[in-house]
Amino acid sequence: MRLLDIQPAERVLELGCGPGVAVAALADRAALVVGVDHSEVVIRQARHRNRSAIRAGRVRLVCASVENLSLSDGPFDAALAVNTLGMWPDPVARLRELARLLRPGGRVALVSQPRMPGVVSASVVEELTGVLSEAGFTQLRTEILDLEPPAVCVLGLTA
Ligand SMILES: C[S@@+](CC[C@H](N)C(=O)[O-])C[C@H]1O[C@@H](n2cnc3c(N)ncnc32)[C@H](O)[C@@H]1O
User: Fold this and answer.
1) Does residue 82's CB lie within 6 angstroms of at least one atom of ligand 1?
2) Can you tell me the mean pLDDT for 79-90?
3) pTM for this one?
4) Fold of 88-159
């Protein structure tokens, strides 16, 4: 979230938002946060966690698959996907659809913190930069957060 540098007037989309922890933090910085996840269970948890921001109209949570996105709140200024891309069917196609939901110059951050033994950051960087560039994102930048295990963040811009 720090790397996305969200500004107060911005609209942010989080894909695979899980129980809405990042949504809550983003809602403190943005004008609107839309969180999407295909699990009804986690969307219920996310709605509970973000109930006052939902009431205030600053958060909207949508139970949907990333392969069936139909959102009316865009265009978004920034998008975030944490530890979820590896579960999506055809991630490059999903990222191309995401690019259409972002404004020109919109930012995306893909984050992966693999916990399987033997998965090294370099291969994760290669995977995330590969799918982002294939989907047409430009000016890719990688940051590795010094967590245990390390979290790989790759940022890019829409054309
Ligand atoms: C490991 S969790 C990460 C949740 C959250 N981003 C976080 O970091 O706490 C992965 C999330 O992606 C969601 N997910 C996986 N595939 C999805 C898909 N095709 N469409 C929407 N959500 C999906 C799962 O339901 C789950 O909540």
Assistant:
1) yes
2) 97
3) 0.96
4) Rossmann fold (3.40.50)
